Amino acid sequence: VDSIAKHAGVHPGYLSKVFKESVGVTIPEYINQKRMEESKYFLLHTKLSLSDIAHLFKYCNQSYYTKKYKKYMGVTPRQFRNIMSNSEETN
Fold first, then answer.
1. What pLDDT is attached to residue 86?
2. Residue 70 CB contacts under 8 Å (≥ 6 apart), including other chains
3. How far is the C-alpha of 4 from the C-alpha of 1, rounded, in Å?
4. What are the pLDDT digits (tens) for 29-80?
5. Are 77 and 67 in contact (CB under 8 A)?
6. Based on the number of CB atoms within 10 Å of its own CB, is 39 exposed (0-12), middle (13-18) or buried (19 or more)?
């Protein structure tokens, strides 16, 4: 938030307040949501391990990535991958 605010030339508190009022979530929440959405591509279209995907998206480890993924998506990354691969097999 600090680096974004500095780049925009505003106070971090002001940026946070305006962002939440406009978007409905905090800046860190928004960034996490976007990271999870983007990580879905790698779960669907690559054979990368969950650990590799976690590191690609700058999470400290697979466990933390899995916890965050489940919070935002409702299932773990492994469950998502399995559900999607099973649905592709039946199509």
1. 85
2. 76
3. 5
4. 999 999 999 999 999 999 999 999 999 999 999 999 999 999 999 999 999 9
5. no
6. buried
Distance between CA 1 and CA 82 in Å, rounded?
35
Q: Looking at residue 60, what DSSP letter applies?
A: S
CA-nearest of 90, 85, 1 to 43 is 85
CA separation for the pair 73, 34 (Å, rounded):
11
**pTM exceeds 0.90:** no
- Spatial distance between the Cα atoms of 57 and 23, rounded to a whole number of angstroms: 22
- Measure the CA–CA gap between 2 and 28, rounded to whole angstroms: 11
Structure tokens at 87: 């649905």
